[in-house]
């Protein structure tokens, strides 16, 4: 029994305990959703009307999107959500044949395009707030393996509608089944930054076995494999980076130059014996931001037989309109040829866009309005990317 002197304390203690529980429960339940809502926005915009003719063409396309960060968020990708930019129902509405799901394993505080150190990490808090398995809290490798497991589980629970693509045979079967009228979307696992190797080449096998078939060497900071466009040093490939590059080409993992520093991109393009991609971004000619590609880099990607995926967010194309996306696509075609143009949305990558994946027919409409033929649109919207995948995948 408490003494009369302390009795008045009890309601305060209970009150603060309740508040504490509310705060903790809020942190683990409301917070991940609120964080995502504030970071993956879709703003209202005046989008072009999609004509019946465009809709018919769009529904006949094999569309491929080379980059989304959906696996980072605490959501069931099989269920339609009111937040973020994609899930399976919305991919189906957009008639997407192949979606690349990327794993972000570390992201610096005050992330910016100019200079970031590797000393801080926002993802750590996110892994705890989302109640991810403790093995992922302190390990970048485990975070990516967890993302791969999430995708694998979604595919297993999807009644065959979401199918993992790890080989060219997997890809062919997704495309054949779609051509036969089945509602199937392919999912290819990639990583955004090889910091998840944790400096150890042997971890490449773990990621490969988990399904990694595309990899960007860096994200927002320099790591053990290469310099980032947004790092402090912005250097080229390291010895580990060169070893991993050779291993990727040997085993059929697509090299992605997105976020790499200009010297690292130059070296990768010189070394490449297989098609290389720039999975998501823009071009400096239409949007002068340091993460976007120079004309030389577009030519370099084209020379490998690879593709440049144009994103839909402001820092990639400077304006949230289908016209700005198609301006960048047209520039890629002018410099690198029609076979180099592709899509890389960066949906759910802490980006603000004007349409989610269910509405990507607005791009098809804009391409038609520019006078592009049906066959050209087929190539741009997915044909080119699927060609690269069929060529590089094991
Ligand atoms: Zn990115």
From TrEMBL:
Top-level taxonomic group: Bacteria
Molecular function, one GO term: metallodipeptidase activity
Entry keyword annotation includes Disulfide bond: no
GO terms under biological process: proteolysis
Gene3D superfamilies: Metal-dependent hydrolases (3.20.20.140)
Pfam families, per database record: Peptidase_M19
Membrane-crossing residue ranges in chain numbering: 12-31
Keywords on record: Membrane, Transmembrane, Transmembrane helix
SUPFAM superfamilies given in the database record: Metallo-dependent hydrolases
InterPro entries from the UniProt entry: Metal_Hydrolase, Pept_M19
Name of the protein: Zn-dependent dipeptidase, dipeptidase homolog
């Amino acid at each position: 029994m408490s003494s009369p002197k302390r009795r008045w304390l009890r309601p305060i203690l209970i009150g603060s305990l309740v508040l504490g529980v509310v705060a903790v429960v809020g942190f683990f339940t409301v917070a991940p959703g609120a964080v995502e809502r504030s970071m993956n926005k879709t703003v209202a915009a005046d989008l072009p009307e999609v004509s019946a003719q465009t809709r018919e063409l769009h529904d006949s396309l094999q569309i491929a999107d080379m980059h989304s960060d959906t696996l980072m968020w605490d959501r069931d990708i099989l269920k339609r959500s009111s937040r973020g930019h994609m899930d399976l129902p919305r991919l189906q509405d957009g008639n997407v044949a192949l979606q690349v799901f990327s794993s972000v394993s570390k992201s610096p505080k005050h992330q910016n395009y100019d200079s970031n150190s590797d000393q801080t990490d926002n993802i750590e808090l996110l892994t705890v707030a989302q109640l991810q398995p403790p093995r992922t809290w302190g390990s970048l490798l485990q975070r990516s393996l967890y993302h791969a497991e999430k995708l694998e589980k979604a595919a297993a629970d999807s009644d065959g509608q979401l199918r993992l693509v790890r080989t060219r045979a997997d890809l062919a079967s997704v495309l054949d089944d779609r051509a036969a009228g089945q509602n199937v979307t392919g999912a290819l696992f990639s990583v955004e930054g090889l910091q998840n190797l944790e400096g150890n080449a042997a971890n490449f096998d773990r990621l490969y076995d988990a399904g990694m078939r595309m990899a960007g060497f860096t994200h927002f900071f320099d790591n053990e494999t290469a310099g980032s466009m947004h790092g402090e040093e912005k250097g080229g490939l390291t010895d580990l980076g060169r070893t991993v590059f050779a291993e990727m080409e040997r085993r059929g993992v697509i090299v992605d130059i997105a976020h790499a520093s200009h010297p690292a991109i130059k070296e990768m393009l010189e070394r490449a014996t297989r098609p290389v991609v720039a999975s998501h971004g823009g071009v400096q000619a239409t949007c002068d931001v340091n993460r976007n590609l120079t004309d030389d880099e577009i030519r370099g990607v084209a020379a490998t037989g690879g593709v440049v995926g144009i994103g839909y967010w402001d820092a990639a194309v400077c304006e949230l309109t289908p016209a700005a996306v198609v301006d960048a696509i047209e520039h890629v075609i002018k410099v690198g040829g029609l076979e180099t143009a592709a899509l890389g949305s960066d949906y759910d990558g802490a980006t603000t866009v004007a349409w989610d994946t269910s509405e990507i027919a607005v791009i098809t409409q804009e391409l038609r309005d520019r006078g592009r033929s049906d066959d050209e649109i087929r190539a741009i919207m997915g044909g080119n990317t699927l060609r690269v995948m069929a060529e590089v995948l094991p």
